User: Fold this.
Amino acid sequence: MTRINRRTFMQHAGTAAALAVLSRTNRVWAAPAESAELALTGGAILTMNESEPNADAMAVRGGRILAVGNDEKIKALISKDTKVIDLGGKCVTPGLIDAHSHVIAFGHMELKFVIIRPPKINSFATLQQALAEAAKDKPKGEWIVARGFDTFKEGRFPRRKELDDAVPDHPLLTIHWSGQYGVANTAALKKAGLFDKNAKDPYGGKFMRGRDGLPDGVLIHYPAIYAVHQPEIDEQDQIECALWGFDQFVRDGVTCIHDNFCIPKHAKSYVRLERSGRMPCRLRVYPYVVNLEHCQELVKGMQRYEGPLLRMQGVKLAVDGYPLMYKPPPKNKVGELPMHPQPLFEQIIAAIHQAGFQADVHAVGDKGVDWTLGAFAKAAGSVGECGKRRHRIEHYPFRKMDSVKRTAELGVAVCVQPEYIRLKAADFAENFERELVETMVPLRTFTKEGVHVAYGADVPAFPSHSPLDSIRGAMDRKTEKGQTLDKSEAVSFMEALRHHTLGSAYAAFDEKDLGSLEDGKCADFVIWNRDLRKINKGKDLDGLQPQATYVSGKAVYEA
Ligand SMILES: [Zn+2]
Assistant:
């Protein structure tokens, strides 16, 4: 956030006072030189601007905010050409910024994949039934891709033979909700040339094997999944998926999204979509790199594209898939598999840093987070340099105090998913220490220690794209079974809203233009159907909905 220090403030105040005197003495009472194109009056505007948190009215011109203040101030900016919206007491907030989601992938999953999410799919029998149903009308030999499974009553993932029972004649790939694990049937392994005792594990991934030495179908981390099959869609479909995804977001009050697992093809489609004028909201793109060579090549050729709504922002990579922990669960065979050997990981971070880009790292485990912080510090050479680049960590669910303090010191932004609490607590409780689970998504600690916090829904990994679900999780800390995790890590509604607006803006260097409603910033805002000032607990969010979402002063959604 830009802060005006006392001296500059006094200078500004002095100039304003001088101008006021001038205009009084000259008796200039003409209509304002710049009248508003759009004015909102008679509402409750939560600006997220610390120096003027509440206002009644707002004026917009040229896609930006001309003024925010009381009705009287804004009415002075209304001319005969101004479109006036009488808010009738309704609440307005800045547009919400989703700092971690995957728009094309979201559309791709929801429109093109077989959905196998719990609670409907919770046993091998329910899974087999859904897959057999999907195969029924498909020509033999055609790929079937299904995504969304989590845990099964059987207490383990199925193996290829159990998938063969349902789908013997189609190559079939099922993908875990997180995108980190998969299970393929025998036909898929054969088609990929991997039904072989000598099949080599890919970089960063692993094929689990049966007693016979053959891959048993279980695939660990996305390099293994992609080695079997990388679902492709053509450009037309990518555009269709993107438009569908954007539409879901703007309906829920999101005006800017960070896509941080973006393959170069998708990045191109986004650019094309923006140029065609059909992109309804803002997008920050972080192409994903799989290894050092790929990274070196990417940063060399990566264009610093910036359009009115879209910017190539940084480079994404992962340090872990399954959480890389200091104490890996003893029964889990893959708990020690990082995405890159540590020295190579550090070289990738250094390459991104040296090329002048922001590095954005998926890190779930406590050790993964420490590797990442260490790599940032090494690449930057000084705390200040690291802070300037604003490298980020995605997910970071576990609280480890020395890591949190170091995160704040290095100026690293953290993008959390409060939905981890609801959806992952039970799974984590089986594998990790109780205290780590109780304090997961430590928003109070992050805030107190001065860590820059952003929120992202992470669809399609998580099922809900709604920012209100993230905010609810941050306030209530409730698990799927209704237990409440350590309440001392909860934040208030206004704090959560701040994370989801200004905090997310900061994570992509957008705080000068986005995240709060202030003079000169982009006119991205949401009109809500209810008064948000009375929200104290998650339940108060029930029924809350945007009535309209605006980007650059234009309605991109109206109820
Ligand atoms: Zn993600």
In short: The radius of gyration is 25 Å.
